Amino acid sequence: MSITFRILYLVYLFAIPIGVNAIEIPMQSIQIDSLIKEKNINSDMTQLELLILYSDALEGKPKDSIQIFKHLAILNADLDQPKDAYVFTEKYISNTLDISILDNGAYSFIEYSDEYKKLENKYLPKIDTLSFLYFYVALIGFFFTIILNFTKNGNRKAKIFIGCFIGAHSLFILDFVIFSSNFQFRFPHAYRMSSSIALLLGPLLYFYFKSVTQNFKFKKNDLVHFIPTLVLILSLIPVYNQTALDKIGLMLQSTNTQKSYDYIIFVLKTISLVFYAFCIWKLQFSDKTIKSINHNSIFSWSKSLFRIHIAYVISYLLYGISAYVVFSSFSSFIYHFQIGAMSIMVIYIAYMAYVQPNIFNNESLSLKERLFSEKYKKSGLTEALSKELKGNLIKLLVEDKVYKQSDINLETLSEKLNTTRHNTSQIINEHFNMNFFELINKFRIKEAKRLLEDDAHGNLNIIDVAYEVGYNNKVTFNKAFKKETSQTPSSFIHAKIKSNSLR
């Protein structure tokens, strides 16, 4: 087991905020019933005699019956009476919300009984492989949320929207982990932690797609999309303001009011997800102009992201129907499908942010700007200026080697050419018959081949070459190199060595 894995496991296991164990139970001073006092309890009494004594005391309906529930629960557990231990344990917990009773060593005598397993599954923290994997995915999501929201280069609006989108998914996943692992009783303020953002997923993804397909500017009118979320948050404030014990009580005592509230959230979230999925489809994929460039890597990324989102929407609908309409026992099983879809979404976005960061760094993808000559018929760019800009661009690529800058993007290149992004895109499309990314990759790989060919003694590492020509990681470099040369860098080096040995 790697050190990283162990550290994450320890964080998952021990990094739990002050919860129930630190909560002071508001109980009245315990006054043992007169019937018990008359029996003159002493240390010589057997467990069975104590059990009979407390049972008799309970029949008299004393004021301290709650404390007697505790004694009877522990005594029955100690005497290997799991059924009675279960009954009195439930009574004690339902009255006091004190789950720490299960830490008593007496329960070790009934730990293999079905009754104790019911208590364990309901109240005690449990960690399984799937929950740990979900927890790890949530950590990855939060990490890339920070990265995407606090890096200044590129399309800031798009990165904020997609960053918040992945953060929202990560919060839902973390919420699921906490409750499926029974940590909600030690972390009671996690109750309805993700409910407040249930209506936020659709708008965030919609505005992300608007940011990368249009010259989009967020206006005050766009705030209307977030009003449902604001109303939902306001409706949850009374719940969030409750004490930890009150929240535990809500979790243990599911009322019809809570079920109705959950159903309302399900209906509203379903409407929101379906509505914004349609808006995204209409915005991104119904336009014939955009469809004509579906070979573009960024369009492919957007399409994959949208498909995963649709998979999540479908899984959420199936879960909601099974839980709220047909009341199927499979609802908990189906719930894993939507968490799985969320996890795939988080991992996919994180992977693309690492392997192909230019997808997020380009100031505005403006897919329409990537169309070729048909698009530029009405362009104000004269032929003379076009040739001049082409010459300047070649100089930047050949002499200045701007492609070696790892954060180079269309906006930066346009500034160096002292022209607009639109003109730069047109120059690349018309004179080089490719888009910005293809042009940069072409020059990077050409430079990489030169470096590898000049390395007669094989002293260069592949990763060193990748960094030298402008790539941030080996994976992206290998992918681009193979696309350009039909072989990996390693194969290229081996072929060169073999060729030299034959001379």
From TrEMBL:
Keywords in alphabetical order: DNA-binding, Membrane, Transcription, Transcription regulation, Transmembrane, Transmembrane helix
Pfam families membership: HTH_18 (PF12833)
Keyword DNA-binding attributed: yes
Entry GO MF terms: DNA-binding transcription factor activity; sequence-specific DNA binding
Gene3D superfamilies noted in UniProt: Homeodomain-like
SMART domains reported in the protein's UniProt record: HTH_ARAC
Record-given protein name: AraC family transcriptional regulator
